[in-house]
Amino acid sequence: MSLIQVINPNTSLAMTETMGAAARAVAAPGTEILAVCPTHGVESIEGHFDEAIAAIGVLEQVKRGKAQGVSGHIIACFGDPGLLAARELASGPVIGIAEAAMHTATLVATRFSIVTTLPRTLVIARHLLQQYGFTHHCAALHAIDLPVLALEDGSGVAQEKVRQRCMQAKREDGSGAIVLGCGGMATLAQDLTKELGMPVIDGVSAAVKMVESLVALGFGTSKHGDLDYPLEKPLSGAFQHLN
After folding, report:
1. Residue pLDDT, tens place only, 109-166
2. Are 141 and 126 in contact (CB under 8 A)?
3. What does each C-alpha distance from 105 to 2, 84, 124, 200, 239 come to in angstroms?
4. Distance of alpha carbon 81 from alpha carbon 152, whole angstroms
5. Cβ distance 82 to 54 under 8 Å?
6. What is the DSSP letter of 29?
């Protein structure tokens, strides 16, 4: 049996449950999903400042997950905050949902579009496209111009805006797939895939299957090179618990 930790880097319990449900929907028999979030930090991640704070919560959860014997970790925020630091700390695989979604999109289409929340986060997606080598695969980026927590307010407005933006991307971008650029959109992917007749990719689900595959292959995070465990040195003040 595999135990996969899905880390929501923000403090929203509702969003954590949304992403946990999406992960469980695709998990193989014998895979258990542990969906968690930090108890302190920011309730939504919508900029560089938020990501910097959230990265510490990610590392705390990775450390706890290791102590619980998880097989691998998923960072369930589209900015993939703290990804490389988490890989240093972890022994099992660590996958970010933006990374997972982009990789998956390139396996099923030559070009993809991204639909995310606030326009200010588009630059973060562009940075990740460059970092992961997918800039030339991305045809366009779209924002619904609503905050992340609008996906959890129960009105359905944000979900309808996501739907409309995905339809626009299909009409205008020449893309073969659409990547949903927020973990809070995780449960929308299957219905949108059916409605649009093209792959609409949720990074949470994609990351679950990637972690399962890596675990089945017997691969953890390489400890040869820069992703070796952090150098042992004392941490002081608020960071002592990460020692």
Report:
1. 999 999 999 999 999 999 999 999 999 999 999 999 999 999 999 999 999 999 999 9
2. yes
3. 25, 22, 18, 9, 37
4. 21
5. yes
6. T
